Amino acid sequence: MPKSEESNVAAPEILSGELDLKERNNSLVGRIANEIARSITDGILKPGADLNSVDLAVRFRTSRTPIREALMILEKEGLVDIQPRRRPRVANISLQEVEQIYEIRATLNSLMIKLYVRNASPASISHTISSFEKMKEFRDKQDFDGFAAARSGLHNHWAENCGNANLLELLRTWKMRMSVSRLVGRRGNDMSRSIQDHERIVLAIAERDEPLAAELIRAMTIWGFTLIKRDHQLRQGGA
């Protein structure tokens, strides 16, 4: 029996959510999934927002089939909620789930930075230092977007040069990349705290101190959840 165009049908690799990093970057479905995920994790698409496949098809200049497949990938990663006979929505996320995500991130980040310190070339460490200097420049200008991009670039550099491709793939799942700004908004005042945290990590990297770098990045990751929890409590108190 033929299925309607609105039914959730996709190739097996899409249903399983198994697109590797290269496919994510090069395939149409992967590029669409990345763009939608970025809009979600950056807070442009808010929790509970409708994801209209027709509107998205117009935006990406494609049919609805790649859109549905991209949304199914993001459902697997917990960013999208798809219910039968209902329009897909940006998934709501509980404080408990956020805490669990940040606990995992803290562990993965600790391992990542230890491997980076162990494997980084002198040129890579020089890149780390120059990237941190860019963060400070954006902080001084109170340019949050520039600061966030520089910080993200620094973290990506560490992950890409840690020497463990499987760990890199885990860190690049969209749920692991969920930003504090998506959940609590953009806080210019927290740039100074971030600079302090990153400065200590960069010094530990320069001194090739694996345990210290790992402990510092773990503490910084947990601080990210502390911001989210604080904001949640303020909202609850004001409700």
From TrEMBL:
Recorded superkingdom: Bacteria
Source organism per UniProt: Croceicoccus ponticola
Question: Which keywords label this protein?
Answer: DNA-binding, Transcription, Transcription regulation
Which Gene Ontology terms cover its molecular function? DNA binding; DNA-binding transcription factor activity
Q: Does the keyword Transcription apply?
A: yes
Q: Return the protein name.
A: GntR family transcriptional regulator
Q: Is Transcription found in the keyword set?
A: yes
Q: Which Gene3D superfamilies match?
A: GntR ligand-binding domain-like, Winged helix-like DNA-binding domain superfamily/Winged helix DNA-binding domain
Database matches in PROSITE patterns: HTH_GNTR
